[in-house]
Structure formats: C-alpha cells, structure tokens
Design goal:
Pfam families: 4HFCP_synth (PF04476). This protein is of the alpha/beta class. 43% of the residues lie in helices and 17% in strands. Strands 1-2-3-4-5-6-7-8 form an 8-stranded parallel β-barrel, surrounded by 8 helices. α2 links the parallel β2 (24-27) and β3 (56-59). The longest helix has 24 residues, at 213-236. The model has no long low-confidence stretch (mean pLDDT 95). It binds glyceraldehyde-3-phosphate (G3H).
Length: 237
C-alpha cells in the first residue's frame, strides 16, 4: 500500500486532511519556503486536533546545512510532541554532519530526511548517513516551487534507483515535489512508500492557498487506486 502525505498549515486544514483520509499529517508553512516551519504553538494545536488519529510530522524550516543550527531546530520541533521531524537536505555547508547532528538531537521523535532534489545531487552517501543516524525514512522533494515537478528534475529510472537505495538502507522512501494528479499513477508504479502533496490539495493548485476538501479526497482516492493497481500488477505480472 502506498501512503498519502498531506501538508497542512493549521488545525482546520489538519482536520480536513484527516477527514479526507490522508495517512500522514505533515505540518509546514509554505509561505516560509519549501520546508517552512510553523510556530511551536501552531504545531501543538494541530497535534491536539489530530489527537492520535494519524501520525503527525513537522518540518524544521529551510535551514543552511550547519550542524548546530539544524540540531537546535530538530530538538525544538521534537519537543512539540510530533511523531516525526522532517529535516531538509540542501547544498552547501555540511549535509552529512547535519544528518548526524539531527540523529543525536531527535529526542523521542522519529526523523525523516527530505532531499531537495533540485538543489543537491542525490547520492547514496546521504541515504546511508540517514540510516546510520537512525532516520526512519527519506523523501525527495523540490526546494524551488516554480511549477516544475519532481519528475521534471529526475527521471523515473533515477527515482526507482532512489527507492531501491532507501529500501536497501532500511528506510521508507517518499516522493513529493509539486506532484499533480497525473503524476500519481506513474510514480506509484515505482513502488514508493508514500507520496506527498501540498499544491495539488489547494484551491487553484497554489500551495500558499488553503486546502480544498474535495481536492484532498480526490488525491487520497487516486493514491489508493494507484497503490492497489501496483499491488495487483506485482502479483499478476
Ligand atoms: O511534503 C510534501 C510537500 O509539502 C509537497 O508540497 P508541494 O506538493 O506543494 O510541492
């Protein structure tokens, strides 16, 4: 089964995402960037709204790859009580040291690394470092939200290789990055653990807009349908 991640910005949107059937409620502030962080109070309020009905993740912000700053943000975000802290990996600085520092700072939260595939070259070293630091998953996303999707930056073969490397390292593998309805079936065929969305859930398809319950339900259903087709194809083919 492929899971569906919905990025939301406040308790009202979190409730919409839960009601529509999203599997993972991801808290972020799209106005602050690809992985913009929400204030701790908003994260806590969203967590209270979700009330254990779904796992909740929160992003630490689009930070430079500097270990002390990343560790402080991971620790601060974990202290809100979310299940998963999502840490972005971009170019410059020392990504490998940041991954190790995040692993030491996570407290009781699980960690998921988000490799911004348009900003840093995807390497197996990053994935291996996450596994060594105790991360549970790794996602690809895009850092620049200019209408291009993850599939504009990486071929299906590269995405399949990423999923294989993540699985080999014992991590679940997620894909995101301005994904639209039309991307779901081809990406589901690659066998990711989870597909993540924000823009496609919003009125007008703009990620800073509010999410639309009908769009969320449509994306959830499409991920379900594509996931089952892949399941059947894997057994019949
Ligand atoms: O974690 C997933 C992201 O929120 C995806 O956002 P996007 O679909 O607007 O690129």
């Amino acid at each position: 089964m492929i899971r569906m991640l919905a990025s939301v910005t406040n308790p009202e949107e979190a409730e919409i995402a839960v009601t529509a059937g999203a599997d993972l409620i991801d808290l972020k502030n799209p106005s602050e960037g690809a992985l913009g962080a929400l204030p701790a109070g908003t994260i806590r309020a969203c967590r209270e709204t979700v009330a254990g009905r779904r796992p909740v993740s929160a992003t630490i912000g689009d930070l430079p790859m500097e270990p002390d700053g990343v560790a402080a943000a991971v620790s601060r975000t974990a202290a809100t009580g979310v299940d998963i802290v999502k840490m972005g990996i971009s170019a410059g600085g020392d990504p490998l040291a940041c991954i190790a520092a995040a692993g030491r700072a996570r407290g009781a939260a699980a960690l998921v690394g988000v490799i911004l595939a348009d900003l840093i070259i995807l390497t197996n070293d990053l994935i291996r470092a996450m596994a060594d630091a105790g991360f549970i998953g790794v996602m690809l996303d895009t850092g620049v939200k200019d209408g291009r999707t993850l599939r504009d930056h990486l071929s299906d073969d590269s995405l399949a290789a990423f999923i294989g490397q993540a699985r080999d390292a014992g991590l679940w593998a997620g894909l995101a990055g301005s994904l639209r309805l039309a991307d779901i079936t081809p990406l589901a065929a690659l066998g990711p653990s989870i597909l993540g969305f924000r823009g496609a859930l919003c009125q007008g398809g703009a990620r800073r807009d509010v999410i639309d319950p009908d769009r969320v339900a449509e994306v959830v259903q499409s991920v379900r349908d594509a996931g089952s087709l892949g399941w059947v194809a894997a057994r019949v083919g």
